[in-house]
Amino acid sequence: MLGFFKKTFGRFYEAITSRLASLFSRSVVDKDLLSELERILIEADVGVGLTRTIMARLEEDVRAGKIVQGADLKGALAQLLQAMAAQKVYREDARVILLVGINGSGKTTVAGKLAHRFVGQGDPVIIAAADTFRAAAPEQLAVWADRAGATLVAGKEGQDPASVVFAATEHFKQIPGARLIVDTAGRLQTKVNLMRELEKIGRIIKKQLPDIRTVALLTVDAMLGQNSFDQARLFHESTHLDGIILTKCDGTGKGGIVFSIADTLKVPIAYLSYGERMDQLTPFDPKDFVEHLLNS
Ligand SMILES: Nc1nc2c(ncn2[C@@H]2O[C@H](COP(=O)(O)OP(=O)(O)OP(=O)(O)O)[C@@H](O)[C@H]2O)c(=O)[nH]1
Ligand SMILES: [Mg+2]
User: Fold this and answer.
1) What residues does the ion ligand 2 have nearby, CB within 5 Å?
2) Does ligand 1 come within 6 angstroms of the Cβ of 113?
3) In sequence order, which residues have a C-beta less than 8 Å from that of residue 49 and are 6 or more positions away?
4) Per-residue pLDDT for 253 more than 60?
């Protein structure tokens, strides 16, 4: 498991892990060490506010004599980070997944990866190409669906995406045990249009499949760092978000973003996506994540 994590997320961790190792090996935790830790957390995109909270707790433990050596610090930090990343836990049992996110954040790629994952678990998968805004979108999705062994339901360019979703839900009803993944457009003429469209899609699903557990997952490009929050908030306002998929984790060393997202948005991290291959997606496990982050 360690090998898998290191190989996969080596870069995602690197800014944090290697620098932390030298702190944890010291025999005394002093002011200098703490400010070095603070710098590392901020540079790893843990976020200024959250870093302050973490530092305040650790300083308290130092004052109380609970943290003396670097090893104590490691234990305390591990507990804090795990608690933060695990505030909300994502359950993977939804039959319908609505993927939302700004353009280029990795929705279509994730649709393919999730389809591959569920097909691997033995479930028939239907993908709805609800991005009818971009001409090439259904073709891109068709390639993924084909590779994953999923069925694609697509419309024509410019067709009302809600009607594609309607057709997909009709198909879904015919196939026992199926999963439905809805890929949406990341860009419309205006944000208002985009949000209205997502609301409409949400309404169709609810009306068509009232008894089926449906979740909306937001793809967030990990490379955007702290800039991703404004977008996440925007989506959060019009769509209730059930989880975050952090994408392009292979492209950044700032894995600390995981904690600031979980803490700020109070939405669980559902998956980490880290490459362009179909199997490069993993459910997010806070305990594993923190363990590997703090152990180089
Ligand atoms: N390295 C890397 N590239 C990725 C990852 N996920 C997506 N990409 C690439 O990022 C680009 C955008 O990904 P898409 O899946 O098309 O994003 P989208 O959200 O569907 O974009 P729109 O449909 O335009 O809104 C593509 O070139 C992908 O190959 C990832 O985890 N790692
Ligand atoms: Mg797309």
Assistant:
1) 107-108
2) no
3) 260, 264
4) yes
